[in-house]
Amino acid sequence: MTEAPAPPSAAEAPPRRGAARAWRRFRRRPMPMTGLVLVAGFLLLAIAGPLATGDPAAQDYAATLAPPSGAHPLGTDDLGRDALARVAHGAQVSLQAGVLSTLLAMAAGIPIGLVAGFYRRWLDPVVMRLVDVTLAFPFLVFAVGLAAIIGPSLKGVVLALGFSQLPAVIRITRGEVLSIREMDYVSAAVADGASDGYIMLRYVLPNCAAPLIVQATVAIPAAIIGEATLSFLGLGVQPPTPSWGVMLTTAQQYLDVAPWLAIWPGLMIALATLGFNLLGDGLRDVLDPRSGR
Amino acid sequence: MSLLRITDLTVGFDTDDGLVQAVKGISLELAEGEILALCGESGCGKSVTAMSVPRLLPPETTRLSGSIELDGRELTELPESQLRRIRGKDVSVVFQEPMTSLNPSFTVGYQIAEVLRRHEGLSRRAARDRAVELLELVGIPLPARRVKEYPHQLSGGMRQRVMIAIAVACSPRVLIADEPTTALDVTIQAGVLDVFRDLRDRLGTAVILITHDLGVVADIADRAVVMYAGRAVEQAPVDELFARPRHPYTLGLMRALPSAAVNGRLAEIPGLVPSPLSDPDECAFHARCPRAQADCVLKRPELVRQADEHLAACFHPGGPS
User: Fold this and answer.
1) Does one domain contain both B140 and B272?
2) Range of lowest pLDDT (A109-118, A124-133, A134-143)
């Protein structure tokens, strides 16, 4: 026995992981909690807001460009439409664009990244060069181009943003898979007679979930801004559907007489984005084992 | 008839420097219920020899020839799909690193049950019940509770026992244990070795134990094959090997044991292992051998019978003492 016994490493008594522990760690941090509150507020506004407020298309010609008042807490726009109702319905559009496009990117990108990273051979370089090419375009430029091709609508926005997010998702998944596939537990699964598909689904995918969850919290706010930008440029959601981007387009013309029209949607975009980003940073700290325990 | 028969196995790997021969023609047999130790230093080919049986070597770069017969069935010609049915069922492996060899995302019970469902077709519930029995078999206390725990909740020794439980779940004919105790505390080592002994006695599992630790060999193995630079240099029942080592390399390994230390210093073997890229027709050990003579560089010594069941590949073997 020429070898000294391995010193008991820090991993010998690993801290409890799992959801309960992650939540305990998360709860103590002020910034992620702020993010969580903002995101919860955004979700509430997007889901319950449209039900609680009136018709966003109802026009009140007696009160066009009216400042905030009892009847219209956030004021009205140039056609006398209630800004509060439009902000609430706009939140719904933003949520749809953010979540659906991210889901789309994940649904397509994760399998591609998984297979490319797992099998490598000829597939991996081909996929990754394509990813590099698309990543060379700035996200919004790419989305604007795609939206122009697909045509202006919420569906177009979701497709354009989802496709623009795709390369990042593929790259992150593939990078994780490359490191996970070298883990001892993957070799052990091969030795136990597991098939490639089984290993990918049960051994590789669950163990690269954490960075993908974090990626989702980055992708959703990027898509929210993306939707607002496309709609602002007229490439996204079309009036009269209320979208924060559409509202900003209108507000731009009345900045001097009705500045609140620009403030509310702008503030909403800022808060929703901030919330997701703070939440994402917090999740990264809590979920990613490499950022220290 | 022997359970596993490896005949003239040669394994090489394509590398940027050319073909590296890791195993250069090894033959060995394993009987049912036998514990065979493959020992030697790092890079001597002991792991590669054992991993060739379930063919757990990178397929793109591995060049394998020779014959591996399990129960008379040739394994080297089986396609991957049929090998999968053998891996974990007829031949299973326990790896060196218990800390990282379990999937962190699932409970240990799930991971044991997974093998049973794959190879034995057990239902979810039956597999779960069997997992509890297996944890008990490998000596884990409170198995009904442990089965629901995640790997990070278990110590290294317990994780290694879980790995063994997974490996023996389908009552394999051959269990390959690759340095199963190296990463464990000395106090835990003995317990894990007891598990192997117990499984052999109860289930009749034959074990190929890969180790560089002669203490482990003496403790548990029935027979040992000492490897050097890709070849078997000595092969004997363990009692015979320790009583009368014939090959100077085996002797050198034994002198390097702490119990054999003279004046508190361990005797090391001088020199370096020859490069695996070239393979001249000479004794690979001659440059480091205290008994080397002129004939050692003229021709490679074959593995020849020195005594009953005792083989050594040396022109100047130590005589019976």
Assistant:
1) no
2) A134-143
A213 contacts in B (CB within 8 Å)? none
Take residue B237 and report the two structure tokens written for it: 């029942």
What would the two tokens of residue B85 be? 């049915």
Which of A17, A184, A206 comes nearest B95 by C-beta? A184
Q: Global pTM?
A: 0.80
Q: Are residues B168 and B116 in the same domain?
A: yes
Residues A26-37 as b/e (b if ≥16 CB within 10 A, e otherwise) read beebeebeebbe
Torsion of CA B234, B238, B244, B249, to 10 degrees: 40
Instruction: Quick: pLDDT tens for B92-146.
Output: 999 888 888 999 889 999 999 999 999 999 999 999 999 999 998 888 899 999 9
Integer Cα distance of B247 and B256 in angstroms: 15
CATH number reported for the structural domain that contains residue B217 in this entry: 3.40.50.300
Q: What does DSSP say about strands B310-312 and B231-237: parallel, antiparallel, or unpaired?
A: antiparallel
CA atoms of A267 and A189, how far apart (whole Å): 51
**8 Å CB contact of B101 and A203:** no
Regarding whether B194 and B256 lie in a shared domain, the answer is: no
Q: In what order do the strands lie in the sheet with B206-211?
A: B91-94, B174-178, B206-211, B35-39, B223-228, B231-237, B310-312, B304-307
Torsion sign, CA atoms A116, A119, A123, A128: positive
Angle in degrees, CA A68, A70, A71, rounded to 5? 90
DSSP result, A177-202: HHHHTTSHHHHHHHHTT--HHHIIII
Distance, C-alpha B191 to centroid of its chain: 18
Question: Two tokens at A53?
Answer: 């407020």
Complex prediction ipTM: 0.85
Q: Which residues span the domain enclosing B59?
A: 4-228
Q: Which domains does chain A have, with CATH numbers?
A: 43-54+81-291 (1.10.3720.10)
pLDDT at A203 over 60: yes
- CB contacts of B54 in chain A (<8 Å) are 191
Residue of chain B minimizing CA distance to A14: B152
Say whether both B159 and B14 belong to one domain. Answer: yes
Please indicate if any CB of chain B lies within 8 Å of the CB of A10.
no
- Residue A204 is given by DSSP the state I
